[in-house]
């Protein structure tokens, strides 16, 4: 059915189109200014992400919007989207090279997706980057002979084996890995290399377009002073650093990664075995369930071996899964008994444990739900 129209409506639409054109011109001007900012940051070695500046600017724009009768959330949404584009565009300018005398950076596994991300970042910072992949091991001694840093970016199950296979590295060469499990790889690197050693875990996937606001976990190894340049370089790329002992990191990852992925896998398996109609589920989905379903579906759009490595490589994964099963059976017992009061008691117990984080997460998820609903196409 054709959309109703009238001269008055058409006239207003023409005016709206003209305003949209003005907005485009303003966006072009803003992007040009951002490019100038990026050039200065590149020259001075300033991180692309400045949290205090961003928070202050957003607070001012929200207040100004409210005074003009514009919903504050509207201007914040627009600005956050523009800032995300700005962070991406700053990649085109490049970054200051913190260690100008460093020898070549060799990415072991650099043909992989995450390895490519770091190879690109080092390249944008002016470092010489070499790739050492499966087919290149015959040339490993040659590629590594004068290396300034060696970055291990291979699947979890192969990480320690690859580290053990490395030929002797220059004594001052930095050896660093990017694995999502830290204790084993860190111990292996300390064992095979007497020089500086560092364990890193980038808390993001290879599909990121910018490191702005991303988190990289730092597990110190040996000769911390000799790899401060890399930590500073990562911050210039826009990431935030979180330091933690390797054991603490691995314990957290059991819940944050392994159990979360395992739970999503089981739920996806359940939907498949129940012969669920995904299109129908989407039609009946509230924004929150649509987002949850999207996160489950996202898992199955990726390489299964990656998630198998994450889940199976955790030493306590089986025990954690059994604990989860026990909690599920406890909840199932409440359902079988029709015990709504018991359910509410358990619910309140968990809510008390979450404390103020529950309200924080409710607020954060509200913004995500709006974005998810806006992008709805089915």
UniProtKB/TrEMBL annotation:
Location of this chain's protein in the cell: Cytoplasm
The UniProt record lists the keyword tRNA processing: no
PROSITE patterns to which the protein is assigned, alphabetical: CHORISMATE_MUT_2 (PS51168), PDH_ADH (PS51176)
Keywords: Amino-acid biosynthesis, Aromatic amino acid biosynthesis, Cytoplasm, Isomerase, NAD, Oxidoreductase, Tyrosine biosynthesis
Domain Chorismate mutase as annotated: residue spans: 3-94
Superkingdom, taxonomy of origin: Bacteria
Pathway of action: Metabolic intermediate biosynthesis; prephenate biosynthesis; prephenate from chorismate: step 1/1; Amino-acid biosynthesis; L-tyrosine biosynthesis; (4-hydroxyphenyl)pyruvate from prephenate (NAD(+) route): step 1/1
Pfam families listed in its UniProt record: CM_2, PDH_C, PDH_N
Residues of the Prephenate/arogenate dehydrogenase domain: 103-365
Protein name: T-protein
Organism of provenance: Ferrimonas pelagia
Source taxonomy: Bacteria, Pseudomonadati, Pseudomonadota, Gammaproteobacteria, Alteromonadales
Gene coding for it: tyrA
């Amino acid at each position: 059915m054709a959309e109703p129209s009238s001269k008055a409506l058409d006239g207003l639409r023409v005016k709206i189109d003209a305003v949209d054109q003005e907005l485009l011109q303003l966006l072009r001007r803003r992007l040009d200014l951002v490019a100038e900012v990026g050039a200065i940051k590149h020259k001075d070695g300033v991180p692309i992400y400045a949290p205090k500046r961003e928070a202050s600017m957003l607070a001012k724009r929200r207040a100004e919007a409210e005074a003009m009768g514009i919903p504050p959330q509207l201007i914040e949404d627009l600005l956050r989207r523009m800032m995300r584009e700005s962070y991406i565009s700053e990649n085109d300018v490049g970054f200051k090279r913190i260690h100008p005398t460093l020898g070549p950076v060799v990415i072991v596994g650099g043909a992989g997706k995450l390895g490519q991300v770091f190879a690109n970042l080092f390249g944008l910072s002016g470092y010489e980057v070499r790739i050492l992949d499966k087919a290149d091991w015959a040339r490993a001694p040659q590629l590594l002979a004068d290396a300034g840093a060696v970055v291990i970016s291979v699947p979890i199950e192969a990480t320690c084996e690859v580290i053990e296979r490395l030929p002797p590295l220059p004594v001052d060469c930095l050896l660093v890995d990017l694995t999502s499990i830290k204790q084993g790889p860190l111990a292996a690197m300390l064992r095979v290399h007497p020089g500086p050693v560092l364990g890193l875990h980038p808390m993001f996937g290879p599909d990121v377009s910018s490191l702005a606001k991303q988190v990289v976990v730092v597990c110190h190894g040996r000769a911390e002073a000799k790899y401060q340049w890399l930590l500073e370089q990562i911050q210039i790329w826009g990431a935030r650093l979180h330091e933690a002992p390797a054991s603490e990191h691995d314990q957290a990852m059991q819940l944050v990664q392994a159990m979360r992925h395992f739970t999503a896998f089981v739920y996806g398996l359940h939907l498949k075995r129940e012969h669920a109609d995904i299109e129908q589920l989407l039609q009946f989905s509230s924004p929150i369930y649509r987002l949850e379903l999207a996160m489950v579906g996202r898992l199955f759009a990726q390489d299964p071996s990656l998630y198998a490595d994450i889940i199976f490589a955790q030493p306590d994964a089986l025990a954690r899964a059994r604990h989860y099963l026990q909690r599920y059976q406890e909840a199932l017992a409440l359902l079988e008994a029709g015990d709504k009061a018991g359910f509410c008691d358990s619910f309140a117990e968990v809510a008390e444990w979450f404390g103020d984080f529950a309200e924080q997460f409710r607020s954060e998820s509200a913004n995500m739900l709006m974005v998810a609903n806006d992008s709805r196409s089915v």
